[in-house]
Specification:
Number of domains: 2
Order of helices and strands: HHEHHEHEHEH
CATH superfamily of the largest domain: NADH Oxidase
Bound molecules: flavin mononucleotide
Number of strands: 4
Shape: globular
Radius of gyration: 21 Å
CATH topology of the largest domain: NADH Oxidase
Strand content: 5-15%
Structural class: alpha+beta
Number of helices: 7
CATH class of the largest domain: Alpha Beta
Distance between the termini: 14 Å
């Protein structure tokens, strides 16, 4: 990108040849989701490369948990990273419930199995067959569960930046989750986000107040390895889109072709 703020140049990722097949996505992994950019951040300064590499290595984990304990100082660092996230109006509207007890996790896992069946019933026969081979949680095989919640009353009543967009509070919680996810990856841990649940069930299970929303049930723990590709891609359920497919120049829908300049104002 140009250093001149008045001149927008084409991001490098757009200056690469089109994805073969016109950018269509191949669940078997044909498309390049980074749009031609070096996913590991080649060319970036060394410190930045560490981050880019982490971002690419982060995976949603279900089947690779070892169940080994997490050292308390590691858990502290990961939670501190989550708590350092940006938040609308500096409201920090999150809480983290650390769930290690077997009983609560078993009850949650049973609830997830039920919700899995509910979702499965919405699928046609072929999607249902594919879904049958896909694992959606590692609640009991991971070392600990972290439930991340959202309290809309935190920092209120006048939360700076939320008056027009109520969801900005939820966005903040999701940023805490992403911080946590990246920190855990850096610590050699896996994270799996489970959303096959009804909020009232989790509230009741963990004694969460009625005004507080459980946003994420995260499974956390040491792993044997992180897969190179998302599970859903490996199982042919969905595939990542090339970056160029989601970029627009100036106006929605104005695509930038390979080797075109974006705009020079
Ligand atoms: C809000 C949210 C909810 C998710 N819920 C589930 C879930 O219930 N079960 C599951 O297996 N994966 C879940 N995932 C993980 C996604 O399937 C995963 O992030 C996606 O397939 C991309 O894979 P990756 O995270 O390994 O890059 C969830 C992810 C997000 C962001």
């Amino acid at each position: 990108m140009s250093n001149n703020p008045d001149v927008l140049s084409t991001p490098d990722v757009l200056s690469t040849p089109e994805v073969p097949g016109g950018g269509t996505r191949d669940p078997a992994g044909g498309a390049d989701p980074a749009g031609g950019a070096d996913p590991a951040g080649g060319g970036a300064p060394p410190g930045a490369r560490v981050l880019y590499d982490l971002v690419q290595r982060r995976r949603d984990v279900r089947g690779e948990f070892t169940g080994a304990p997490i050292a308390p100082d590691v858990l502290d660092r990961v939670l501190a990273a989550a708590h350092a996230a940006p938040s609308v109006g500096l409201s920090q509207p999150w809480d983290f419930v650390v769930v290690t007890g077997r009983r609560a996790r078993e009850e949650f896992a049973a609830h997830v199995r039920h919700e899995r069946a509910v979702f499965d019933a919405t699928l046609d026969a072929s999607r249902s067959r594919r879904f049958a081979g896909i694992r959606i949680e590692g609640v009991l095989t991971s070392s600990v569960s972290l439930v991340v919640t959202y309290d809309a009353a935190r920092g209120g009543p006048a939360v700076l930046g939320r008056h027009a967009i109520a969801d900005a509070g939820l966005y903040s919680v999701c940023l805490a989750v992403e911080n946590l996810w990246l920190a855990a990856t850096a610590e050699g841990l896996g994270v799996g986000w489970v959303s096959f649940y009804r909020e009232p069930f989790v509230r009741e299970l963990l004694g969460i107040p009625a005004r507080v929303r459980p946003v994420a049930w995260l499974c956390l723990g040491p792993v044997t390895h992180l897969e190179d590709r998302p599970d859903l891609e490996r199982h042919g359920w969905a595939a990542r889109r090339p970056l160029a497919e989601v970029l627009h120049a100036e106006h929605w829908g104005a695509r930038i072709g390979a080797h075109d300049g974006a705009t020079t104002g």
